[in-house]
Structure formats: C-alpha cells, structure tokens
Amino acid sequence: MGTKDLVNEVLSLKRERNAVILAHNYMDYDIQVVADFIGDSYDLALRAMETRAEVIVFAGVRFMAEQAKALNYDRIVLAPDLNAGCTIADALDVDTLRRVKEEYPNAPVVLYVNSNADVKALADYIVTSSTAVKVIKKLSSDVVIFGPDSNLADYVAHLTGKRIIKVPPNGKCIVHGSYTVGLVKETRARYPRARVMIHPEAPLEVLGLADFVGSTNQMIEYARNSGYDEFVVGTEIGMLNALRLKVPNKTFYPITTEPYARCPFMAMVTLEKVRRSLRDLVHRIEIPRSTAEAIRDAFERTRRLLEG
Question: Which ranges form a coiled coil (predicted)?
C-alpha cells in the first residue's frame, strides 16, 4: 500500500473511531500530516485533555503514551509500538530513586517528563526541558533531586546555582548525548549564516556554543519569530519535519546526518503502525489508577508553582 492510500485509510479510521492522533515533533513527515496535534510530549498530553475523542493514538515513544494515559485516564490510549522506549526514561528505576530519596529526605524530587510512569509517581514535580529551570528556581530548597537526564541536570544547576543531586548520574539521550564541541564548530563552519539551536539534553559545554537553547516547541517559536532565515537544528533529525511544516518560509539544517541523528526508538513508529493501532485498537496503555493519580498530582503541583 502506498503512502497516499495509507494516509487516506488512517484519516478514515480516525473518523470511524472518534480518535485523535498526537504526533511528537520528531515523527516522520507522513505521520505529522495525519496528526491532529504536533508538539512536545507534555503539550500533546494536555492537548488530548481538550478533545472529546474516545481514542488517543500517541505517535511517539512509550513514556509519552503512558503520560497521556495518566492525564486522560478514562480514554483509550494506544501506542503504535510498545518497544519504542527511551534511553533517558529507561535509565532510572523505582528502587534507585527511592534509595536517593532516603539519602536526601528533605530534598524535593523533580523529574523530567522523559521518565516512565512508575518513576513519575514518586515525583514532587514533573518538568519539561522548557520549565525545569523555572520550577527549580522557584523551589525554596537549595538541594534538589533531579533526573533522569544528567545533561539537563547540569544545565539546570548551571542556571540556578542550586545543588542538583543527579539520579542516575549518567542518564543521557542517545542522540543529544553524542553531541560534541567539535561537531558544533564544524557545523558553524558549514553554515556560517545560520543560527544554531540546541536542545538542553546536550552536554553543557556544547550548549555554551549555541545561539539558542530550548525545547522543541521553543525552537519552533524562536525560528518563527527570529529575524534570521537559516538555522542549524541541534536535536533529533525528525524535528526538521515539524519546523518545515510550521515555519515553511525559512531554511533548516540538521546538526549532523550521522546515524545517531535519528532516535532508533522514534523511528520504530511508522504510519503503518499508526494505521494498525487505529484498525485493531492496539497497543492499549494500562497503568494503575493510583499511579495515574500520583502523576496528575505532581503535574498539578508543578502548574501551581509556575503560576504562583
């Protein structure tokens, strides 16, 4: 079946199932075309809450679908491929986090949204790459437990001046964790007129060479509102699809085209698997209600802190 036929079938199934498709910014172009909402994982989970859809298909990695289930517990939430994990999320387990909490009983636990549901349920606050610094600056404690991304932890510590207890000490994204100072310098030489945007999951010394550091959604806004016309994109290469769809009048280059530029887990999610999810209602995400409630409480606590 060709791509055009697949797209048409997905659109038909979506209407038939009263479904909504959420596509992460890193998804392939054809998936973004059929999606109702495109964005980062947290933004998409919130978008799902605004719809009346009975079925939510999350075109992204597993923790994102779990998160959507926690915030939309009474809906059917589908993950196109349950094997689509995340090196950051899978770096932290419940036992490790509990042990660190016992070592620092007075330190608040702030978890990056890139974490699995059972771990998220132990968080006091849940943040994104765009809110981590804001939240930790607002906390009264000078010592904060933060995980699972160690590079983002370093970035937060650098900007807040607080003591960040990294849990685990070496959790990293398979894509962003591979960026080097040399890579950024080579890319600048290749595209001298372009502004360099880099995701804060990259190492701190790499972020120091960027013109802009931000989340995927923040990159879109920066590119849209900037007076510059060319940009190097220092994040997963699928992001170019979202940028070209949402900022079509500007030019974007990947920071690298090496194999590690593409997250192998994001690549597992294909339009064919999205079609199968809708057709057969697979794979259903199930998490305990108590876990979902704990995650929602942490999200709500975070929201109140940011608005306070």
Answer: none
Q: Which of 156, 76, 150, 163 lies closest to 114, judged by CA?
A: 150
Q: Can you list the alpha helix ranges (DSSP code H) found in the chain? A: 3-17, 29-34, 41-49, 62-71, 94-103, 117-120, 132-138, 150-160, 181-190, 204-207, 216-225, 239-246, 271-280, 289-307
Q: What is the C-alpha to C-alpha distance for residues 118 and 62, in angstroms, rounded to an integer?
A: 13
Question: Tokens in use for 39?
Answer: 């964005």
Cα angle, residue 216 at apex, residues 107 and 162 outer, rounded to 5°: 25
Contacts for 30 with CB less than 8 Å, ≥ 6 apart: 3, 6, 7, 271
Q: Which amino acid is at 158?
A: H
Q: How far apart are CA 16 and CA 290, in angstroms?
A: 32
Whole-number Å distance between alpha carbons of 34 and 269: 14
Is 308 a domain residue? no
Whether the full predicted model's pTM is greater than 0.90, yes or no, is yes
Is residue 116 within 8 Å of residue 95, measured between CB atoms? no
- Please count the helices (runs of H) and the strands (runs of E) in the chain: 14, 12
Q: Which CATH number characterizes residue 134's domain?
A: 3.40.50.10800
The number of distinct structural domains making up the chain is 3
> Looking up tokens 């802009």, which residue turns up?
212
